[in-house]
Every structure is written in structure tokens, then in C-alpha cells.
Amino acid sequence: MMDQTIETHSNWRAYLPRFSKRDIVEGAIIAIAFLLYFWVRGAVVDSPEQAYWHARDVIDVQRSLGIFWEPGWNEWAAGKHTIAQALNLTYFYLHFPLIIVFGMWAYYYRRSRYTFIRDSFLASGAIALVIYYLYPVAPPRELPNLAPLYDPGAPPYIHGFIDTMKQYLGYAYDSQSTRAFVNPYAAMPSLHFGWDLLLGIAIIGCFRATRWAWVAVPIGVLLPLSQILAITMTANHFLLDALAGGVVALTGLGVAAALQRWAYPFLGKQAHKLPRPWKSAEA
């Protein structure tokens, strides 16, 4: 029995060194980010009326600018199965799954760039969470359901949006299996576009000096461009949502650059000034 216990202990020790302090810190940062997201989600999920009228405000601004093209784009895409499915897959798979895969790759193979990439995503995400909390906006796909409740006299274009993901992909954000993980009123800003913009910039930055640049640069450019079409034609976002997402993403880049240039060096200097009791104990 004792030998078996020692063997089990040895097996655990064999796995423990694989997890460094940096790994634990990274896991904690991501966990905190997710907790903040769910907190904000819980705070705005019961604001459908406010989210509806904010969406109407977005539409009014786009109409005044002559760029309210989403109803026509959505209707056109919804009528073409293959195109709708391609947009659905772009929206769903060329976003969070791709970010996770690239983030893990960068963590292990581009560690010198990883912190900057991570900080730009986290900073932009934090800014977006504040906006989601202060200004919830319903996505176009939700408007046909909300209009009868809060705006019976809504114009026809409000009722015409089609949720292509629900229609063709069989995925619904309001289903029981996904409801707990989705903020239904987080259309503005669109992190689907903003984070794909950051992802594209990160991919170009990691590969531009390598022999794979000829592949990486087009991918980095096409990712955010394709996401603009996907988020609008699937009735998940407005064009102004994408614009706001781009501004938030670039602001996140600025914050990450400031952290690299000033905050981290300052914190490093302060950390070196702290007493190290273990050194005196060794002496």
C-alpha cells in the first residue's frame, strides 16, 4: 500500500513541473476576465427594453448617414443557403476558437509577443464590458422579437431581420444550452470585429519577418474584413457596432503599448526594491 502511494505521488510530481508560475498566473488572468464578463452579462440581461431603444438609436444614426444597409444585406444573404452558411461559419469559428488556438500558439512559440497580444485583448475587452454595462444594445436579430413588446408601431425594416445562424446552422443564442454564456445585448461595440482586427494584427506581427509572411499577411487582412460581412449579413451587429469595435480594439492596442513601455518597467523596478526575506535566511 505504501509503495502504491509513493508511486502515485511520483506520478503527480512528474506532471507538476509542466505548470510554471507563469502558467498559473495566465490561467488566473483568463479566469478573472471570464468572471467579469459573466458579472456584466448578469447585470444587463434584464434590460431588453433599454437595449431595444438603444438599437433604434444606432439605426437612426446610420439612417441619417445613409449607411443603414443591414436589412438589404441580411435579406440577400438569408435567401442564399451556401452564402449564409459561409457567413455563419465565419462568424462562429473564425473568432473565439481561432483566438484561443492562436493565443496558445503565441504563448509557447512567440512568448516575447504574447504579453502584448494578451494585454491588447484584455484591455479592449475591459473597455467593451464597461460600454455593455452602460449602454446595452440589442443585435438586429433580436429586434423582431422585442418590437412587439416595446414598439408596436415599429417600421417594417425592424421586423425583417433574419437570424441566419438559427435558420441554417441550427444554433440559437437564446437556447437553453447557450443562454448562460451569451450576453444578448452586447452588440455595441462588436468584439467579433474588434478582436478579429487584433487577431489579424497579431498574426501579421508574428509572421511578417518569416518565410510565411506571404500567407500570414493576407490572412491577417482578410480576417477582420470577412468578419464585417459576417456580423452584418447574419443580423448579429450593425455597421456602427463594427466601427465601435475597431475603435475599442485600437484603444486596447494603445493600452497594451503603454503597459509595455511604462507600467511593466516601473513595476519591475519596484519589485526589485522589495525585501527578500528568503535571501537573508539563506545567508
Q: What would your notes on this structure say?
A:
By secondary structure, the chain is mainly α. It has 14 helices and no strands. α6 runs antiparallel to α7 (111-134) and α11 (191-207) runs antiparallel to α12 (213-233). The protein starts with a helix and ends with a helix.
Helix percentage: over 70%
Number of helices: 14
Cα-atom radius of gyration: 23 Å
Strand count, sense and barrel status of the largest sheet are:
none
Order of helices and strands: HHHHHHHHHHHHHH
**Whole-number average pLDDT?**
87
Content of β-strand: under 5%
How many runs of DSSP E, i.e. beta strands? 0
Q: N-to-C terminal Cα separation, in Å?
A: 41 Å
Q: What's the shape?
A: globular
Question: Topology, pairings included?
Answer:
Layout: H1 2-15, H2 21-44, H3 48-65, H4 70-78, H5 81-93, H6 96-109, H7 111-134, H8 143-150, H9 156-159, H10 164-169, H11 191-207, H12 213-233, H13 239-273, H14 277-282
Helix pairs in contact: 2-7, 3-8, 5-12, 6-7, 6-11, 7-11, 7-13, 11-12, 11-13
